[in-house]
Amino acid sequence: MEANQSVFDFDKEVDRTATSSDKWDKYKGKDILPMWVADSDFQSPPQVISAIQERVAHGVFGYTHAPESLTEIFVSRMAERYGWDIQPEWVVYLPGLVCGLNIAARALTDEGQAIISPSPIYPPFISSAKFAERPLLKAPVELENGRWLPNLNHIEDQLTGQGGLLQMCNPLNPGGTVFRREELEATLEFAEKHNLLICSDEIHCDLILDKDCQHIPFASLNESAAQRSVTLMAPSKTFNIAGLGASIAIIPNADIRARFNRAKRGIVPGVNVLAFTAAEAAYQHGEGWLQAQLDYLAGHRDYLMQEINALPGLKLEHIEATYLAWIDCSELPVDNPFSFFEKAGVGMSPGLDFGNRKFVRLNFGCTKKTLEEALLRMKTAIAALDR
Q1: Does the structural domain 60-285 have CATH classification 2.10.260.10?
Q2: Each residue's pLDDT tens digit, 38-56
Q3: Which domain of life is it from (predicted)?
Q4: CA-CA 20 to 30 A from 97: which of 43, 128, 257, 269?
């Protein structure tokens, strides 16, 4: 039985300063609120914490493999949430999603074949092409009716017809777009036309803030989509267990799956025992907590949009998913908005890391108190520009 949603306290201030936290240690000893890397400040679901404690109490932490029960839960989850019938043998466990992006870049392209990526985008998309030593083509992400969408037509004349890899990010990071079926179908048509394989990062698929939006896994569109794709998912962002390292690649095509597994053989470690334990508990028992978190984050999103769009020089489009706000600072009279706000005590992600230095990305996976303080500091800094 799920715990009552009313017992989840997302306003609880959890001190992370003595936990070797990447997020909080970046500004250790400084009066700067860390609102950058994509982990939240919320305690994970109580069932996850209990499951880890129980496993730790066992006291033996030898080599381990994926529990069949976890795979069964994940297969059922895909069917129930998305109507996507996957087979257990399609599931490949990974110690993180970023390594999945890099494995796909190396395994699914040959020398000279291009990797196509949206831009701006989560930085490991760009670096995966660099590390694989493949040419990179950037499809500009443009605003269409208040939603950020990649423009694949922009790079079509640069394609050679020799195949390659198209990287997708759904929901989009940054931007928070949840792709509609017709948009995914247009992407599939583009891939079919140019003989492209697809790697779809869907790590934020559980963090849909709009009740009228539905995540659709790209590979669930039809058999053509399934047979040309690698789908990457994880419980990490959803349940704030990213530090444990448990991610999942779903690869229906046996040849692509073999290539993917060959590329990681002897290099990529297995998933650790506590990560498996946390993932299973999260997927099996975390739904009540997740729904409460989504309500809390949607309230943050609405408050943030109201406040940001009231500030001169800033603009924030509607965020359909994720707890990441892509803030347009192009009208702000400063050369480097990231540095400007950092000096004001708000440490966001620089837009340049994603592909546009006139933006910043703000992580609102935090308490309301922290968000209010961040906005107060931003308001104060902008007001001081007019003095």
Answers
A1: no
A2: 999 999 999 999 999 999 9
A3: Bacteria
A4: 43
